[in-house]
Amino acid sequence: MQLLTIFALLCVLGSTLSDVKRRHIKALPGFNKISYTLPKRCKKPAIHATSTCPNGEEPKLRFTYIPGTKKCDQFWESGCGKKNINSFANFKECMTVCNPSSKCLKTPTQHRGIIPRITSFVFDINTLNCTTKKSLLKPDIGPQYNRFLKEDDCKKTCEPNLQIIITNSG
């Protein structure tokens, strides 16, 4: 009877879980979790602009996902020629599509205590920088929190490599 119940449960869960192909699901205790499948577009290398287009269209700054670092970096995309599929208008869109479970996308938790004693770092999705936060108690850290004990860990995990724009003022 127990075996039949387990079999029925597996049949129900199996069909439910097979429908979810690109989601990161936390498993029940004692079971392995189903890992997120990276969309094909996020695996493709970006095609960087090397010049302006014959029609005079200037390259545009976009974001591309780098599987090796598990984050998005900025690059110059040409408006002519072959279309980039691993190209996004902004960092948040890129990370949401390619690494939706990233702690960099999580809203930082509020610091605890009125006397700042312990330093930690959080990634600000609006400025694309890691910022210092202080709290009385040791902050919650881990994959479910946008909080790091070391600034370097925050930068390596979340901060994108941005392109420098040089303009001629004269």
Summarize the structure.
This protein is of the alpha+beta class. It is 22% helix and 16% strand.
Instruction: Summarize the biggest pleated sheet.
Output: 2 strands, antiparallel
User: In the CATH hierarchy, what is the class of the domain at 38-100?
Assistant: Few Secondary Structures
The largest sheet has its strands arranged as 1-2
Q: What's the CATH H-level superfamily name of the domain at 38-100?
A: Pancreatic trypsin inhibitor Kunitz domain
CATH-defined fold name of the domain at 38-100 = Factor Xa Inhibitor
Class by alpha and beta content:
alpha+beta
Share of β-strand residues? 15-25%
Please provide the count of β strands. 4
N-to-C series of helices and strands: HHEEHEEH
The Cα radius of gyration reads: 21 Å
- Overall 3D form: elongated
Q: How widely separated are the two ends?
A: 84 Å
- For the record, the CATH architecture of the domain at 38-100 stands as Irregular
